[in-house]
Amino acid sequence: MASGWMPIRAQSIPYLTQEQPYAVERQKLLSAGWQKVLKPQRSCNELAEPAKTTCYRYPEVEDCSGNGYCKFGWRNSRGEILGIMTFGMNLIITGWGIEQ
To answer: What pLDDT is recorded for position 15?
Structure first.
């Protein structure tokens, strides 16, 4: 996981809901104009499991830990980066924060 990221609830993202599946909240982000942060020249095959499998469905995944947490990256029109943390096989959102 990226260092320095705090999985906190960002007040500037009022339409996101904790404890919801990432797939549902992802659609809200896309509808609100957020863009997926994709790592340039990175292939899903370069990632270790479980990030590799997650990457095929959600290429904006940054990494996943061996204990079930994954982090996803998004960018808004102001260039702010939003990190979203999930847990478990169903990728339930546990928190998010604007990265500094």
So the answer is: 81
